[in-house]
Structure formats: C-alpha cells, structure tokens
Specification:
Elements: E1 2-6, E2 11-15, E3 22-24, E4 47-53, H1 57-60, H2 63-67, H3 85-95, E5 101-106, H4 116-125, E6 129-134, H5 141-150, E7 154-157, E8 162-170, H6 177-185, E9 191-194, H7 197-210, E10 220-228, H8 231-242, E11 247-253, H9 258-267, E12 276-281, H10 299-307, E13 315-318, H11 323-329, E14 347-350, E15 355-357, E16 369-370, H12 376-380, H13 383-393, H14 402-405
Parallel strand pairs: 4-5, 4-14, 5-6, 6-7, 7-11, 9-10, 11-12, 12-13
Antiparallel strand pairs: 1-2, 2-3, 8-10, 14-15, 15-16
Helix pairs in contact: 3-4, 4-5, 9-10, 10-11
Length: 425
C-alpha cells in the first residue's frame, strides 16, 4: 500500500498497485487525528478516465445496438481520430507521482487502439496502473497476455443477453453421480445457467443418449435453463481469465435490462471465476434514451438493491451513480464503503480530443477545459470544475445522508434514485 498525504486538504489516502485497493481517511486535525468529516475533494485527481478511442468498431458493427445497450459515447455514429501517442504521454508526464490509476476508454474498445501496447507501457513507465473496459469483440490471446503484464484489471461489458428454454430431466432413480454434481453446480431451484448455446446442446445430447428416451411423465423434472447469446463476450472473458487477468463484468442497468439482471442475481448467472460484477446505471446521454431510465418507485429497483448483499461466488460493485439507490434500498450496506459522485472531486475524464471534463457523461462539454491550452492541474483548479463541484456542495442540505450522497448525479438529476422530501438540487 502506497500512502500519500494531501497537504492542501488534510487527508491521507492509500493505493495498492497490486490489488487496486484504495482507502481515504477523514479530514485530519492538527494532531493527525481523523475528525469524522469526509474530504470533499483532492488537490489532484486520483483516477483519470482517459478516452483514447475516438471511434468504435463494436458500435459500427451494429452489435452494440443489437444487445440493447445504448452507448452514452454515441460510438456507433462517431468516427473521430483516436488519441495520439504523443498526447497520451503528455498526460502521463503531468500525472506521474500524482495520479494512481487510468481507466482507459472513449468511444470504442481501448484494446483496438493502434498503439495499445505502447499506451500500456507508458502507463507503467510513469508509475500509473492502467485498467480498461472492452466489448471483447476484438480480444485475442495475445492482447490478454498484454493485459496480464500491464493492467490492474479488465472489465468486459455484458453485451451478451440471456436466452431461456425449458428442459425436462429424469428424476433421481435415473441420475448418476455426474448428474448430481451437475445439478449441485447449477443450483437446486429449478434454474440452470449455461455460458453458451453449445454448452446447453452438449448437455441435452448427453441426457438424451444416457437415458435412452426414458422421459415418461411420472419421472420428469422440468428446469428453466438460461444461456448466453453473445459468444464473443464469453470468449473474451475466458481469454482474460486463462491469461490470469483479474476480470470484471460491467452490466448496464436500465428499464430494458433490469429484469434479466434480477434473474442473473437469483441464479448467479455469470461466468465462473470472474472477480466482480459491476453495475452501471443507465444514463440518458448520447444514444441513451430517457425511457430506459430506472424510476425510484419501480419495485424492481428495490428488489435489485436488496439482492446485492446476498453471498455470491463473485463480488458486487457499482458505479457512483448507484449510490443514492444503495443508500435508500440496501439493507446491509456499510456507508463507508460507498463513494458517491467523485467527478471533479477525485476523478475526471479526458477525451481523445484532449478536452477534460469532470465526468465522461458531460458529452456536451459544458464544463470542458482544453488541455492544449492549459495543464491538467489548471483544468482541475478551474472555475468550470469549481462550478461543477458547487452543485454537489449545495445539494440536499437537510438530508441526514447528504455527506454520503451529495445529491447524486450533478449532470442528470433524473437518474437519482431517491424520492425523499429533502431531495434538492
């Protein structure tokens, strides 16, 4: 763990480059004791989302739209230049010794950047841990090896959707030990999860041959079987896992995807050996439609958050946009483990065009600062960034959870999952 003192704002923070663990103290008094007051901001971002991609192969292929995920970066319609290697190194130089992590992103898959390997090497040269999210469409074993060598973690976007069939299976008198293990592996609630249609087909073929058509009505159990539709998503996950990469899944939650998420949570329907599933709240930005925004009074929302504390074979994470919902609906949640909107406070976004904004969802660049005309530090301390922070400073002054929530998203208040009377922007 590397510990650093923020002298300007009087707190200490730690980062472990090998595990990604990140810790902040409260504001410290003159004797170095914690005051119980959370630091509102840092003197420099601790994490920067660097949008190295100006275009998207996955989006232009139509696969993004087919999955039902509505790209906030407008990837399918963009064909801008990717970030140059020279500009990326300029960012690295300014961040060295100050910023611990980069989240590589942009309009497309970072692993498809023409200088991807050089970008990863530059990060490590300047003491920065790179992470990134990919659709998995262009993932190869060779890229996975690079990820193991240089990255802290890689997330694969869950573009694969669940398909559903019902199958019958002969009761216990016809089961052998192998079948018992199979049922134990996939749960005893009448629901099974398969990673592919091929896996499902193999199981059905084996059952059909083994039991010699003994499928009479008295000895049948019917099972709901869910299997993945997106083979490239699953293949990418396994390439990364096989290379020893800490692999997460990013799942965008909106009106169109929450029902499937509830099924996945109920049956632990995600590939084996992943590190975590990270839930990303749908935002009406870019191609994101307003009708896909979750409503706080939707019963499914409360059900989702209440399921998050259940034990699972993988970790559960969420983006900071989910924090108001977690505070309002999670039964067993350590508020200290939540970090509400860190945009302009502990993180920021730099696009391929070198425009820096507090959050990547500021696609209109209302708070944008041009890094071709100023430094990252200048942008971080600019009046535009301070105006963004002031929205959070003034939010919900009478709410008891204000310090943990700060009113939620400063850009899109309609996504804030809170209906308390104290809610105020």
């Amino acid at each position: 763990m590397i510990w650093t003192k923020d002298e300007k704002y009087d707190f200490v923070y730690g980062f472990d480059p090998s595990t990604g663990m990140y810790i902040r103290t409260d504001v410290l008094d003159e004797n170095g004791r914690e005051t119980g007051i959370q630091p509102f901001r840092a003197s420099m971002p601790h994490l920067i989302d660097v949008g190295i991609m100006g275009r998207c192969i996955h989006g232009s292929s139509g696969l993004c739209a087919k999955s039902g995920v509505q790209c906030y970066q407008n990837g399918p319609r963009r064909n801008d230049p990717n970030m140059t290697l020279e500009n990326f190194e300029l960012i690295c130089k300014q961040c060295s010794g100050k910023v611990q992590q980069f989240a590589l992103g942009g309009a497309g898959d970072p692993d498809q950047h023409e200088n991807f390997e050089e970008i990863l090497k530059l990060c490590r040269t300047y003491g920065i841990v790179p992470n990134f999210t990919t659709s998995g469409l262009g993932m190869t074993p060779e890229i996975a090896v690079l990820c193991k060598q240089y990255c802290g973690a890689v997330a694969v976007s869950q573009y694969s959707r669940l398909k559903h069939v019902i199958i019958g299976k002969v009761k216990n008198k016809y089961w052998d030990a192998k079948d018992e293990q199979f049922v134990s592996q996939y749960g005893d609630k009448g629901e099974w999860y398969m990673e592919s249609e091929e896996e499902l087909g193999t199981i059905l073929d084996n059952l059909w041959c083994e039991y010699h058509h003994k499928w009479d009505d008295d000895k049948i159990i019917f099972k709901d079987v869910y299997y993945e539709s997106g083979s490239y998503t699953i293949k990418a996950i396994h390439m990364l896992l096989d290379a020893g990469v800490k692999t997460n899944i990013h799942y965008v939650v909106g009106n169109q995807s929450i029902d499937e998420l509830l099924i996945r949570l109920r049956i632990n329907g995600f590939p084996k050996s992943i590190n975590a599933v990270v839930l990303l709240l749908h935002k009406p930005v870019g191609l994101g439609m307003a009708k896909n925004v979750l409503e706080v009074n939707d019963d499914r929302v409360g059900e989702m958050y209440q399921m998050l504390s259940e034990p699972r074979p993988f970790k559960i994470g969420m983006d900071s946009c989910n924090v108001p919902g977690a505070i309002n609906f999670c039964n067993d949640m350590m508020l200290e483990s939540l970090d509400t909107c860190e945009g302009g406070r502990f993180s920021c976004y730099i696009g391929a065009d070198m425009i820096m904004v507090p959050c990547s969802f500021d696609q209109d660049k209302k708070y944008g600062c041009d890094l071709r005309k100023m430094t990252i530090q200048d942008a971080w301390d600019s009046d535009l960034f301070e105006a963004f922070r002031n929205i959070m400073r003034g939010a919900c002054p009478n709410c008891k959870n204000r310090e943990n929530c700060l009113g939620g998203c400063p850009l899109k208040p309609e996504i804030v999952l809170c209906n308390k009377k104290e809610k105020k922007k």
